[in-house]
């Protein structure tokens, strides 16, 4: 099969088309013919080598990608799944394993990591759902703010942030969010109750709306210590990429590691159902041929992309 991968870490230019053996599904696994794979910031982290330790010394080539949409191509022996060959599906893929990630013609994943595509949704849009929405879902579950509580979301215009806003609203929470002037209406349309101007002093603006402090923060912008003052004593902050403080006043730091719940089928199915019901907005910035992955990574690094860039694997 053809994949988009790298043999050495570096900038976008290290991504290229490579030939790999077709993967064979084992017991409990499903093979998917990939039609679309979304481009996420975590893919650029893998490509850069920042997280190379997670390969445990395994040599390349390495294939990025955590979000795939396509069609079930094969089902491994003794696999208990309602899925059948030909079903349109979406999957979350763990790219640090020996089979690599979603930037490939075929991926093999545990059946628990696969759910049917939301009805009426095309492959590119569907590929933008699971990884970011599951990260937001896990962050909210770790914060465990009861209905009627207040959370703040930073980076609310991004994919993780947008899903965090919508999932928090579906949980019955009051949602404060940040945005640039250009993105204020976008974030309001996603359902935020109050939108403040983003920036290093955003904690002050959140406190102006919640004088006693918010119950929790979903920190998509990775502001870390800059947003902690917005949190009430004993509240929490859900963080991506492993920041661990320091914090005080009894504030708890909750690192969010989406790989740990990649086989949580019930959570994935619920997110799929919410997307089908229109509770989650699937946003595609652009669809590009898979062999233009390097350009997609450059565009993502330049900033300002709203929604996800998606790689088209139907003509690889």
Automatic annotation (TrEMBL):
The keyword Glycoprotein does not apply. One of its GO terms (molecular function) is oxidoreductase activity. Residues 10-311 form the Enoyl reductase (ER) domain. SUPFAM superfamilies: GroES-like, NAD(P)-binding Rossmann-fold domains. InterPro entries: ADH-like_N, ER, GroES-like_sf, NAD(P)-bd_dom_sf, Zinc-ADH_QOR/CCCR. It holds the Pfam family ADH_zinc_N_2. SMART domains: PKS_ER. Keywords: NADP. PANTHER family: QUINONE OXIDOREDUCTASE (PTHR44154:SF1). This is Enoyl reductase (ER) domain-containing protein. It comes from Kutzneria albida DSM 43870.
């Amino acid at each position: 099969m053809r994949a988009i991968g790298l043999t050495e870490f570096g900038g976008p230019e290290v991504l290229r088309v490579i030939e790999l053996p077709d993967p064979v599904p084992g017991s409990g696994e499903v093979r998917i013919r990939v039609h679309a794979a979304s481009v996420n910031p975590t893919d650029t982290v893998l490509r850069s080598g920042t997280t190379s330790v997670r390969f445990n010394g395994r040599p390349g080539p390495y294939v990025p990608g955590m979000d795939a949409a396509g069609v079930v191509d094969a089902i491994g022996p003794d696999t208990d799944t309602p899925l059948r060959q030909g079903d349109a599906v979406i999957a979350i893929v763990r790219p640090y394993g020996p089979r690599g990630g979603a930037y490939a013609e075929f991926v093999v994943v545990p059946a628990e990591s696969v759910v049917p595509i939301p009805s009426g949704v095309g492959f590119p849009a569907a590929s933008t759902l699971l990884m970011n929405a599951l990260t937001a879902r896990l962050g909210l579950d770790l914060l465990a703010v009861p209905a009627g509580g207040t959370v703040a979301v930073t980076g609310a215009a991004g994919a993780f942030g947008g899903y965090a806003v919508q999932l928090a609203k579906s949980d019955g929470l009051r949602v404060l969010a940040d945005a640039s002037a250009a993105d204020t209406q976008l974030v309001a349309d996603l359902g935020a109750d109050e939108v403040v101007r983003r920036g290093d002093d955003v904690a002050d603006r959140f406190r102006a709306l919640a004088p006693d402090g918010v119950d929790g923060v979903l920190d998509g912008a990775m502001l870390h210590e800059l947003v902690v003052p917005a949190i009430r004593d004993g509240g929490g902050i859900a963080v991506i990429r492993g920041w661990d403080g320091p914090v005080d006043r009894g504030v708890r730091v909750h690192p969010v590691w989406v790989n740990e719940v990649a086989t949580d089928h019930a959570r994935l199915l619920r997110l799929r159902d919410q997307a089908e019901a229109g509770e989650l907005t699937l946003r595609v910035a652009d669809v590009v041929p898979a062999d233009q992955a390097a350009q997609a990574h450059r565009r993502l690094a330049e900033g300002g992309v709203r929604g996800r860039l998606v790689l088209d694997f139907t003509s690889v």
